[in-house]
Amino acid sequence: MHKSIYNGDFRISSEDFEFEYQKKLTNKLDDLKEDFDQKILNEIVLWKVNRYALFSNDLISKINAINPNETKPNKEKVSDILTGLLKTKGVGLPMASTILRFRNPNLFQIIDQRVFRIIYPKETLKLSTYNSDKNIKFQVDLYLKYLKDLQDVCKRLDIPFEKSDRILFMADRRINNKHKLNNY
Q: Would you say the pTM of this structure is higher than 0.90?
């Protein structure tokens, strides 16, 4: 049985006062004096589920430098931005690809378990969260290959690339609804 405040030996320790959880965001939220808006409520939700990602201004500038109307990717630029995203605490490849997709869906689509398994038979999207240069390079290369393969799939199925992640996601839900996803 677990211990509680009612155990005879329970005491508050000085270390219990050292709350280091998402320190920057915690301090920001603790100091709020203005009315809440959608942005603040989203930050609170992300704080609670420990999913708040703090991006550097440099990385944000690089993301914003992606032209939303561009149709030809610059591989070095994409690799640099994707590497920066993957080095950000709390951002894995599915989240990084989502950020890029909302910046320019003509170049980027979301990589996730559903779309991955529907275009790669007998394969499962397995990504390590280990933040090594080798692992990050593997994920960057995987995503670039995925985008190329996805373009080929779009031509084969005659579907628009910029909507392919959503179309294939829904197709997978329909045809693979009895097959579980990892960690769901």
A: no
